[in-house]
Structure formats: structure tokens, C-alpha cells
Amino acid sequence: MQLLLSAAALDRVKDRIAPFADDLDIVTVEGPDSFARDGVAIPPEEVDPDLAWTTLDAYAGGQMGALIGRILKGTRMHWLQTFNAGLDAPIFKSIMAKGVRISKSNAQAVAIAEYVVGHAVSLILPIDEQRQAQAQKTWRMTPYREVSQTRWCLIGYGSIGREIAKRAKAFGAPLDVVRRAAGADEYADSVSTMDALPTLLPKADVVVLACALTDETRGMADAAFFSALKPGAILINIGRGGLVDEDALRVGLDTDQPGRAVLDVFAVEPLPQDSWIWEHPKVRVSAHTSNSGQGTVGRGDDLFVANLERFLKGEPLLNEAHPSEVGL
């Protein structure tokens, strides 16, 4: 059974998987179309993986194309562990259509949750106003609304959403969750479906988009969405850029609906240099980097090691995706 992954990923986990993966034929992707076994180059024709692991280091190192290419050309592929939390990219549909099982990653959930809460708190508390007073050497009081007195609306409740909810509730903030099915949850004051948004948005001080990009959610943050927002509300998008109608957002910002926007994802990435978003005074921009906490790689390694052992033992996989998540 052949396992395909990046050399950097193998270096991180080889000692951990050795006790139960000794029989695997481990192949590493070294470049755009170069591969190796035990550090010795092999022709691409010898690469026909049964198992594969796509990692952030492979993406950053320009090796993802070769890795995905071998998966798509392969004849024996059974299981893919990906670093992605969402599977809206068309490539995942193509892979799963071949009968490949895919496990999503929740390794980035803690980092993204801290990003969300950090930005929200820094906008709720009068930090900018205090810095301005300091720069002016002005001694003045800066009253503020406590985080516990704000209401949050969290749209999407996968692994990332739950980590955000844990942290929001730690402040004592009321939290409304929107997901596919209504119900109850230990961290939420209410759990509703998308049709409840018109009643939830006018009450929310912080609105977080953490849902997958699907036919239902594409462009969901449109003119009607922003018109329903409480004036001054904070919008944070760490889901997908396609969730937001960026032209409607611009109009909404002009009427203080939302009052501020924190955007980590965009309809076009990298964000074009001539985009209005870069310089808008009410917008914070980050380069799809909310997942870049120092613990993300380690948690991803833990997940892969656990799932590889589960796969080889014939046990259920963690975070296995349903075909409906890729449109099948």
C-alpha cells in the first residue's frame, strides 16, 4: 500500500507512524513533478498512491499540483487526509467521484477561533481611542461596552464554529448559532436554521461567517443581509470570500451596517491591488491567514497519525466528509 505526502510532512511524523505503518510504501513529493522513496528519486510512473496527505507545507512549497495530479491519475486511491476544513473547491468533488474517502481537518479551528475573538474584542474595547488619547497626551475617560454585554451570531457550526463559541461564551456573551438543523447546544443560547437570520441579525453586535460555501450560502451576505444588521455591528468573515457580496458590503459600510468588517477571505485571492477593500477605514484585511497559529501544524500532524492508524485498522475515520459536502 503506497502513501504519498510531502518530505517535510514525513519528517515530522515518520517516527510516530513507524510502529504501525512499517509495511507502507512511502513516497514523497519533492517538486513540481519529482518524487522519491527513501530519499532516492523515482519516476512519476511509479507513483500510484493508495493513501495521501495534503499539507500546508506542500501548498506553500509549490508541491500541491504534483500531489493532486498523482491522486487524480491514480488507479488505487482509497483515502485522502487534507488540511482543508471546507471542501468547496471543485477538485474535491473530482477526487471523491473516484471513490476516494476524504477526511477534513479541524487543526486550524483553535487558531481561527482566537483570530475571531481577538479581532472582535479589540474592536469592542476602545483600544484605538485610548491610543489616540495617548498620542495626544490627553487624560480622558474612555467608557466602553463590556464584551459580556454584546450578543453574537455565529453562522456555521463545524469544528471552527464550536471553538469560536467556546471562547465567546467564556466572556459570558449571549450567542445565537445558525446551522443546517435547529436544536440545542451547550455553548449556544439558541440554535436556528438560516431562515431565522432576519430576526437574529438585528440583535447581533458581532456576526461571524464560519459556514461552508455552498449553493445555499453563496452570496448570502447581500444587500438584504446588511440592511438587517444592527447599526455598528461587527462582521467577521473567516469562511469563504464567496459568502459576501462585496459591492453590497461597501454600501452597507456607508450606512454603518456593518460598522466594522474583519475579512480574512475574499471573492478573488490574492486581493487585487486596486480593490477598494484595502484602504476602506472600516475594514481590516488579512491574507487568508487566520489559520496560521503556531499550533495548527502540530494538531494537523496529530490528526493524520490518528487517522492513518484508524484506516490501517479498518476503524472509523475522524472528520470523514460526506459526499454531499462536495456536491455528490
Question: What do these coordinates show?
Answer:
This protein is α/β, with parallel strands linked by helices and 328 residues long. Helices cover 33% and strands 16% of the residues. The protein has helices at residues 7-17, 56-60, 64-73, 90-96, 109-124, 127-135, 159-170, 197-200, 223-228, 246-254, 296-313; strands at residues 2-6, 25-31, 34-37, 40-42, 51-53, 79-81, 101-103, 152-155, 175-178, 190-192, 206-209, 234-237, 260-263, 283-285. The strands form 2 sheets. A 7-stranded mixed sheet has the order 4-3-2-1-5-6-7, sandwiched between helices. The protein has a 7-stranded parallel sheet with strand order 10-9-8-11-12-13-14, covered by helices on one side. α1 (7-17) crosses α11 (296-313) and α5 (109-124) packs parallel to α7. The longest helix has 18 residues, at 296-313.
Mean model confidence by pLDDT? 96
Helix-and-strand structural type: alpha/beta
Q: Tally of extended strands? A: 14
Q: What Rg, in angstroms, do the CA atoms define?
A: 22 Å
Widest β-sheet, arrangement of strands? 4-3-2-1-5-6-7
What is the approximate shape?
A: elongated
- State the separation between the terminal residues, measured CA to CA: 27 Å
Low-confidence stretches: none
Estimate percent helicity: 25-40%
Largest β-sheet summary: 7 strands, mixed
